[in-house]
Amino acid sequence: MPLLGGDMAVCRTRDVSDVGVCLDTAAWFPIGTRLSLTLLDPVSGTAMEVIGDVVREATAPSWYLGILLIEPPGEWQALVAGAARQTGPMEKRGKRLRVLVVGDEHRQRGAMALYVTSGWDVLFASDEDSIAEAVDNIELDAVVAELDAADPRLPPIMAGVRRVQPSARRVVRTAGGRGSDDLLHRFVDRDAGLDALLDAVTCVLK
Fold first, then answer.
1. Of 76, 98, 69, nearest to 3 (Cα)?
2. What is the pTM of this model?
3. φ, ψ at 98 (rounded to 5°)
4. pLDDT value, residue 90
5. What angle do CA 111, 117, 123 make, to 5 degrees?
């Protein structure tokens, strides 16, 4: 997340070194942007926060974001050393879903743990400009709205997604009232967990 405020992104770490980190993400941050990064150490299961500046923008076709760290803590060297010991032949991964999550910031933060464990490339947007920028410039597999079913912002958001990216799944993760809507592919109960959301996002992408 930008240190001075802005939309969050959840992504995968591609590489780490003593001085930096490379992220596999479609989130766009201009060179010089100072970011706050929270990384989950797969060995210890703990989270580590570091600060760094963008030195390589994520652009097509690679979508790799390069970040130079600023005074990384001592624990960072242990993480890098652990990663070096595990380095082996590159694992061939299947297609990672690229998902845009829209809605109010407090709802996004409440669902953060769910999206962190998804393994998806997740971009967050909370206002019209950031939603439009993502839809217009990034090929998305799905758009998930963290909004109430009756929220008046929902129809114009999903209409815009259907117009620009008709193949992207349009899903609402909500509680309470729901019904059929030709703008949407699926409603998912907010308490249903990751499996229900995964089914909603992938059932027509297989």
1. 69
2. 0.74
3. -110, 115
4. 47
5. 60
Q: How far apart are CA 11 and CA 6, in angstroms?
A: 16
**Which pLDDT does position 134 carry in this prediction?**
86
CATH of the domain at 56: 2.40.10.220
One domain, residues 107 and 196: yes
* Of 153, 159, 150, the residue nearest 178 (C-alpha): 150
156 domain residue, yes or no:
yes
Rg of the Cα trace of the chain? 18
> Average pLDDT, whole number, for the chain?
84
Q: Are 26 and 42 in contact (CB under 8 A)?
A: no
pLDDT at 19: 92
What is the per-residue pLDDT across 176-185, written as a single tens digit (0 to 9) for each? 656 557 888 8
Cα 83 from chain centroid (whole Å): 23
Co-location of 48 and 102 in the same domain: no
pLDDT tens sequence across 111-150: 777 888 788 889 888 888 888 888 988 889 999 999 888 8
My answer on whether 158 and 188 are in the same domain is yes
Q: Is residue 39 part of a domain?
A: yes
Half-sphere exposure of 116 (CA within 13 A, CB side): 15
Q: How many domains does the chain have?
A: 2
CATH of the domain at 158: 3.40.50.2300
Domain with 43, as residue range(s), is: 9-86
